[in-house]
Amino acid sequence: MLIKPLHRLWRLLPPSSRRYFLARLGAYLAPSITFNPPTASTVIIAGEVSRASGLGEGARVMHQALQKNNISSRLLDVIPYSFSWDRYTKATQILSEYPHAPLILHINSPQIPYALLALPRNLVKNRRVIGYWAWELEILPKDWMVGFQFVHEIWVPSQFVANAVQKWAKYYNKPVRVIPHPIADRVVYPVSHICRKSLGLPKGKLIILVSFNLSSSFARKNPLGAILAFLKANKHDRGICLVLKISYSEHYCIDMDKIMNVIQGHDAIIVNRNILSSAENQALFHYADIVLSLHRSEGFGLVAAEAMLSGKPVISTNWSATSEFIDESCGIPVPYKLVPVKDSREVYQFSNAYWAEPDCDIAAQAIHKLVADSDYRFALGSAACKRAYKQFNSQSLIKGLSAIGVVTDME
Questions:
Q1: φ, ψ dihedrals at 154, nearest 5°
Q2: Which of the residues 182, 222, 238, 396 has the least number of beta carbons within 10 Å of its own beta carbon?
Q3: Is the separation of the CB atoms in 90 and 63 below 8 Å?
Q4: Are 366 and 315 within 8 A, CB to CB?
Q5: 341 burial level (CB within 10 Å; 0-12, 13-18, 19+)
Q6: Which SUPFAM superfamilies does the UniProt record give (predicted)?
Q7: 8 Å CB contact between 310 and 282
Q8: Greatest CA span in the chain, whole angstroms?
Q9: pLDDT of residue 3
Q10: Burial of 52 (0-12, 13-18, 19+ CB in 10 A)
């Protein structure tokens, strides 16, 4: 009888307070780490590898890169707040087989205690634990404080994230290393057997792709800004088509209603809500002509980086992590103004938080320029591909492994 009143009281708390309480509770229950544990040469990569999320993809890509570079690694599916006996049994098997293998958790700081609680306590205790974290603002919310005490060091995909975590990392005396996702060494799938029609793409149109996961924040991904820029460009360029690739739309009906209301009556806009395989996703980038990312902030920008690797020009907001690898030589950075964060889900909503509001008019002009000048479009895509292979290889990852005592053949 007490559960319903307690639940109502819980729901009355602000989301930030609920998240902080959960993080502190996890910190109280989770196993502490051992100072200076031994390190073996096999690496265990753990995270939400069974889910289509940015951190899940980061874990999968890191595992693929290690395999390509002949570095022994195992992949472990760990989902905070969701216990599974099958996952626990698999974790027990792998962790028992490699008792001193460092554990790289692609799990953000507030969920680190719950990730550790989902693993056999005795097999985590005397092991090096690294948190691979991504965050999208210049400052951290208070629930992020808890994860620092459960990792030996922190790896991040960009300098932007490093700057955000540095203050608390210094307080807890934890090293921070910038290790971009090594997507240049990911598995490349053949896509010739995947036709445009199977992906819902029309013939005879230049494809402008906007790809995002709704669980990663509707406000931050800013699909309405991308739609607005496309509609402005479409007034002058009728031979273009906007493809909105949206993951997990079924869980965010209010957000999807906003999108569908804006695009209603516009035949040049196609929505793809399917969860694509890795091969299908690479095929989608293959058929795209331009990739548009008018985000308000990114901790890395996997979509933009993947597009560059596929040789596609990217139009992207010139702020946060994407500004570290997209400039005028390999893409079109879109100017912005910083504005206070307004997030209806209140994931990013806290005092003194700012993110970018990209200029949709200039983004529309960029679309028109790329559509009108195919030579420029192809040259920019070629330069983007070269930049991506140079910036997103495995060198930083291998240096990071060497720093923690993992011996590789690359040394």
A1: -125, 130
A2: 238
A3: no
A4: yes
A5: buried
A6: UDP-Glycosyltransferase/glycogen phosphorylase
A7: yes
A8: 70
A9: 55
A10: middle
Quote the pLDDT of residue 13: 67
Give which of 407, 220, 228, 401 is closest to 303, Cα–Cα. Answer: 220
The per-residue pLDDT for 43 is: 96
List the helix and strand counts (H, then E) for the chain: 15, 14
The Cα–Cα gap between 43 and 20 comes to 31
Confirm if 135 and 320 have CB atoms less than 8 A apart.
no
Could you report the average pLDDT of every consecutive run of 10 residues in the chain (411 residues)?
56 75 88 90 93 87 95 94 90 95 96 94 93 96 94 98 96 97 94 91 94 92 97 88 93 94 93 91 96 98 97 98 98 98 87 95 97 97 97 96 81 49
- Tokens 């707040």 belong to residue: 81
DSSP letters for 64-82: HHHHHTT--EEEEE--TT-
Set out the domains of the chain in order of their start, with CATH numbers.
16-179 (3.40.50.11930), 197-391 (3.40.50.2000)
Side chain identity at residue 230, one-letter code:
F
DSSP class of residue 36 equals S
Q: How far apart are the first and last CA of the chain?
A: 62
Q: Which phi and psi (to 5°) does residue 80 adopt? A: -60, 150
CA–CA distance, 381 with 42 (Å, rounded to integer): 37
Strand 129-132 versus strand 103-106 pairing type: parallel
Joined together, the tokens standing for residue 341 give 């964060």
Q: Which long-range contacts (CB under 8 A, 24 or more apart) does 71-75 make?
A: 71/41, 71/43, 71/398, 71/401, 71/406, 71/408, 71/409, 71/410, 72/41, 72/42, 72/43, 73/42, 73/43, 73/44, 73/45, 74/42, 74/43, 74/44, 74/45, 74/98, 74/101, 75/45, 75/46, 75/49
β-pairing, 103-106 vs 73-77, is unpaired
Q: For residue 407, count other CB atoms closer than 10 A to its CB.
A: 12
3-state secondary structure of 132: strand
Which amino acid is present at 24? R
pLDDT score of 304: 98
- Say if pTM beats, i.e. exceeds, 0.85: yes
- Residue type at 378? F
DSSP string, 216-233: G-HHHH-HHHHHHHHHHH
Three-state DSSP at 45 gives strand
Token pair recorded at residue 181 = 């996702």
